[in-house]
Amino acid sequence: MVDQGAVGNPLFNDNRMKLGIMAFNCSHGSTATTAPGTWPMTWPDNVALAQMADAAGFEALLPVGRWKGYPGSTNFNNRTFESFTWAAGLGALTRRIAVLATVHAPLIHPVTAAKQAVTIDHISGGRFVMNLVVGWNKVEFEMFGAEWRGHDRRYEYAAEWLDLARRLWSEEAAFDYAGEFFHGKALWSQPKPLQCPLPTMNAGSSPTGQRFSASHCDMNFAMLRQKDPASDKVQIAQLKAMAAELGRRSQCWIHAYVVCRPTEKEARDYLDFYVRERGDWEAARHMLRVFGQQSETLDKASLEAFQFHFIAGHGAYPLVGTPATIVADMDRLSAMGVDGILLSWVDYLGEGRQWIREVLPLMEQAGQRRPFPRAG
Predict the structure, then answer these.
(1) In whole angstroms, what is the distance from residue 28 CA to residue 45 CA?
(2) Residue 88 vs residues 21, 78, 267: alpha-carbon distances, Å
(3) Angle between the 229-245 and 207-216 helix axes, to the nearest 10 degrees?
(4) At a CB cut-off of 8 Å and minimum separation 6, what does 265 contact?
(5) Quick one: how far is CA 229 from the chain centroid?
(6) How far is CA 253 from CA 223, 309, 357, in A?
(7) Dihedral Cα 166, 172, 178, 180, nearest 10 deg
(8) What is the pLDDT of residues 102-158, one digit of tens each?
(9) How far apart are CA 138 and CA 153, in angstroms?
(10) Percent of residues in the chain assigned helix, strand, coil, to nearest 5
(11) What predicted TM-score, i.e. pTM, was given to this entire model?
């Protein structure tokens, strides 16, 4: 459990539906499309979006850990900012919002990552969160010459990785470490993080991944199967029950792609345009082939059906409609047990402004969020 003490990480506030923005450290963000207005991914735009979300009271900024793009007409996610340095930069340029870094455990040594995490925690004044992932894209591991382990074995490695990092964050005296994967003498790190312990997120959605997340992390970033609302609710309930059995309390966050328009028809028409007419189906097929082989999150039938969602928003949950219907959808998600939503759009800046102007006030009226003083 996170003891917030003197710091105030907004991820632990009492808003019923927390909000974040994700994947804007990557070209095209989460949408594999050639539609006009897709995210070009420049540093000035990253800063503008982060500061806009910060001023509006959003809780989180989450980067994707990506090292290589996907084949296809968009060269999807070909340009990316590395997540630790990205988080440090945005942590220094924001005031309230939590900044996360996505860490591939097998690609960064825990002694290095622990020091980087503490540095960002101090830069941000206690607003850092580590999103620890085990990796599923083998071609990225081949760039590093890193060992490619079996699915369950990756989580065993991550558990030891996190244990070592947490000892560095908490123990004052130097210690030797002799684990299965890591060995070191007189390990030591100062300063300690401002948050004690430093909070962590994990995106494990396979049965093994969910067990890891429930056992070790404060937040689970879940991919809902979207077969029906009842099964989604069961998926979330199982995750939280696993954490409760271990005496832990775990938040459940999801990713949602947003298409908000004045009418339902306009929203559906635009979604069809940027997915069916301008979508990069080659990139979607490649992502699903690799994801299905390595993640063990979705079965083959679900993967085929998910092609549309992967183009629309990297397999995320659809929030498509008018401001009022989107807020109603979020009420249903909250009732399922979702604690927070990480948003993405085709046009992050333009559609993000629309969300703040048109959706956020309705969320406050619906009791999903406390009123927040916004400029202008």
Answers:
(1) 13
(2) 16, 22, 36
(3) 40
(4) none
(5) 22
(6) 9, 18, 23
(7) 0
(8) 999 999 999 999 999 999 999 999 999 999 999 877 778 888 888 888 889 999 999
(9) 15
(10) 45, 15, 40
(11) 0.91
Residue corresponding to tokens 């590093």: 144
In angstroms, what CA-CA distances link 3 with 8, 9, 278, 330, 370? 10, 10, 47, 28, 22
Residue 306 has pLDDT above 80, yes or no: no
For the chain, give the number of residues: 376
* Average pLDDT value for residue range 345-366: 98
Of the chain, the end-to-end C-alpha distance in Å amounts to 37
CA-wise closest residue to 344 among 305, 307, 314: 314
Q: Where exactly are the structural domains of the chain? A: 10-365
Question: What is the pLDDT, as a whole number, of residue 250?
Answer: 85
106-116: b or e for each residue (b if 16 or more CB lie within 10 Å)? bbbebbebbbb
Could you tell me if 284 and 274 are in contact, meaning their C-beta atoms sit under 8 angstroms apart?
Answer: no
Domain 10-365, CATH 3.40.50.1820 — does that match? Answer: no
Residue in 120, 174, 359 with CA at minimum distance from that of residue 256: 359
Cβ count within 10 A of residue 88: 19
pLDDT at 6 over 60: no
Whole-angstrom CA distances from 197 to 132, 183, 249, 274, 342 are: 15, 23, 14, 43, 23
Q: How many helices (H) and strands (E) in the chain?
A: 14, 11
Q: Are the C-beta atoms of residues 291 and 299 closer than 8 Å to each other?
A: no
